[in-house]
Amino acid sequence: MPRTAAPPVPVPSTARRRTSASVVLRSVLEHGPVARSTIARLTGLSPASVTDYCSRFTELGLIRESETPRRSQGVGRPHVPLDLDASRFVVGGVHVAVPYTTVTLLDLRGRVVAVRELRHNGADGAGAGVGADAVLARAADGLAALLARSPRLRCLGVGFAAGGWVDRDSGTVVEHPLLGWHDVPVRDVLGARTGLPVHVDGHARALVNAERLFGRARGSRSVLHLFVGNVVDAAFATNDEVHHGPRSQAGAIAHLPVPGGTEPCDCGRTGCLQAELSERTLCRRARRAGIVEGVNPMHVIAAAAAGDPVAARLLTERAGAVGRAVRLLLDVLNPETVVVSEVGILHREDCLAALREGVGDDRAASVIPSSFPDSVLAVAGGSVALDVLYRDPLAASPEAI
């Protein structure tokens, strides 16, 4: 018998509606104020479908009609553009770093409405001694306090982000060695404490979604995000999808070997990427040079800004090493855009230049710093929830509406 191609698998109507709703709301996000006819042209959907989705979004309070109608080019009634309604709803965000937790409220455009940093009680400078239950309880209380100060705002849900191994599907921090966390059921714990839907992901993946939705990587066909803090990890998105891998282990680059590296790693080897580039290493080298005390990398930035040449050298050397790591990832993944979140690169032009020199002239133009230089961690947690909203906007939390 002649071989025939298998018949195409039909797309369920619910999945098709979810996808259509997503592209309509994303069009309003990216182009608003925008006419319904323009949305139909941009999305390829029929005018009737666009009108239906926009009516649903208006009922949910996600979009509104612009106050000033636009006269059409031909004869007929003027167009009434649509825009996001950023005045009613927010999402909560929780980002757990080694020294502190950042809790925040973001509006529908990913802008920070309110933010608060909560230092970890009882932790040493390396993050040891941070109890998960206490951290999550304080985070829930912190979110409640932010919402209490803005009673007119309704919260659609909570996003949680952290470094280490974070499993999106189970809502669990599987392992965060620097915090000493293992198998922490974040989604269940925060959900019980806040009474809201909770969505969980790793912070590099959260930030690559933030860049796709609200940052300079919007419209890029493939994006790599490299996060260099106390934790060093990466995330890769292509065709509007972030790669997670089995149990969300993709992007674990902490133990990539650095040629010539000298820093001992907790894994027992020497010269692992995270051991060489982490903020803990930067601050330890700065303390050894007598530049700063403590573990805050912003103190190194301040010393360099005050004219300390050793501080400036430490920062530019680190940025150059980050650039060489980016060059390796570019060779493997070949993304259209690379976004880097690293403290020196976000605050100093010489560090950005050192980064691009490390990358090499042929690809340097594709490498950009984070779009959120003053709010990277504040944006990370909330972006987990906003990504869910923009993927399935008709499922906006009924508890909030």
What tags apply to this protein structure?
15 strands, about 40% helix, about 400 residues, five-stranded mixed β-sheet, alpha/beta
Low-confidence stretches: 1-7
Shape: globular
Question: How many helical stretches?
Answer: 13
Biggest beta sheet summary: 5 strands, mixed
Order of helices and strands: HHHEEEEEHEEEEHEHEEEHHHHEHHEH
- Helix % is 40-55%
Which strand order does the major sheet show?
5-4-3-6-10
Distance between the termini: 58 Å
Q: Averaged pLDDT, please? A: 90
Describe the protein's architecture and organization.
The chain has helices at 13-31, 36-43, 47-60, 132-149, 186-194, 203-214, 273-277, 279-288, 297-305, 309-333, 343-347, 349-359, 376-391; strands at residues 63-65, 82-84, 89-96, 100-106, 112-119, 154-162, 165-167, 172-176, 181-184, 198-202, 222-228, 232-238, 241-242, 337-342, 367-369. With 401 residues, it is an alpha/beta fold. A hairpin with a 5-residue loop joins strand 4 (100-106) and strand 5. The relative contact order is 0.13. Mean pLDDT is 90; it is low at 1-7.
